[in-house]
């Protein structure tokens, strides 16, 4: 074999799962052969995406993945965060956790495809945005030329993942005080202030108000709720979180498929894949606010973070949809 064939064989073997390379390292190996590193001005880069038009957004976590097709009307970015909004679509990004981003132009096993992929310092993929048939490639090409990383000497140092550990609460448990503070909540921000005040993790707070404002459910309740909402054509907000990105789909889901612990939504513009056996806990949570009350179904991971949330599609400035409340309470 010549040098080129040796290199192709090396990159194919190095990209295999058995090598132990992170997803970011696997992409970086294709530098110059379909993968282009981008500079670190993430906020300015993201503000160009509304001009690209329709894209397919993807976020993964320990439970599975969510893909939503749509365009962003606007992106508001700061050096540490960014929020993008479009019809039925919302992105919330924690840019302080972004370490690398690449424009990947060719994926041989799926044909020609262009995408943007962002990774954290552990090499984990935080967000992926694929161009689709009706994307506008000219603004995309201009964006790449503006944000291509000109440094040819950069290296990738991936941090080892932390040891898995259960969440803990350092605060003193005071059930009565927590109940009083919970019942006095008026906004979603009050919930996070409650956690800080009593030094509670999210699941520990739910245990403090269990029976009054929170109820533990089996993870299979997620499929029951989605099937009920699909059958009644009730819009929902499906929130899916990675370490540095939150993807929200707002609208009606139509095709819900369940098989054992596997749960899928297979709609034309939305694809959800969940392994419910990986959820550490599942809670139905009731929070009072200025417009009445909010109900949400939350799947927690081993660290106590709500990485999948199903809630009412209405905004916080509107009363909850009675059909949504009825479907959630039926659980």
Fill in the keyword field for this structure.
nine-stranded antiparallel beta sheet, disordered N terminus, 2 domains, 18 strands, Heme iron utilization protein-like fold, 10 helices, alpha+beta, 331 residues
Structure, described:
This protein is α+β, with helices and mostly antiparallel strands and 331 residues long. The chain folds into 2 domains: 3-147, Heme iron utilization protein-like fold (3-Layer(aba) Sandwich), CATH 3.40.1570.10; 175-329, Heme iron utilization protein-like fold (3-Layer(aba) Sandwich). Helix content is 26%, strand content 34%. It is built from 10 helices and 18 strands. It has helices at residues 3-14, 23-28, 42-46, 49-52, 137-147, 175-183, 188-198, 202-208, 221-232, 322-329, and strands at residues 35-37, 55-61, 64-70, 74-77, 81-86, 89-94, 100-107, 111-119, 125-131, 214-216, 236-241, 245-251, 256-259, 262-266, 270-275, 281-289, 292-300, 306-312. The strands form 2 sheets. The protein has a 9-stranded antiparallel beta sheet. A 9-stranded antiparallel beta sheet has the order 4-5-6-12-11-18-17-16-10, sandwiched between helices. Helix 9 runs antiparallel to helix 10 (322-329). The longest helix has 12 residues, at 3-14. It is globular and about 60 Å long. It starts with a helix and ends with a helix.
Q: Secondary-structure blueprint of this entry?
A:
Blueprint: H1 3-14, H2 23-28, E1 35-37, H3 42-46, H4 49-52, E2 55-61, E3 64-70, E4 74-77, E5 81-86, E6 89-94, E7 100-107, E8 111-119, E9 125-131, H5 137-147, H6 175-183, H7 188-198, H8 202-208, E10 214-216, H9 221-232, E11 236-241, E12 245-251, E13 256-259, E14 262-266, E15 270-275, E16 281-289, E17 292-300, E18 306-312, H10 322-329
Antiparallel strand pairs: 1-7, 2-3, 2-9, 3-15, 4-5, 5-6, 6-12, 7-8, 8-9, 10-16, 11-12, 11-18, 13-14, 14-15, 16-17, 17-18
Helix pairs in contact: 9-10
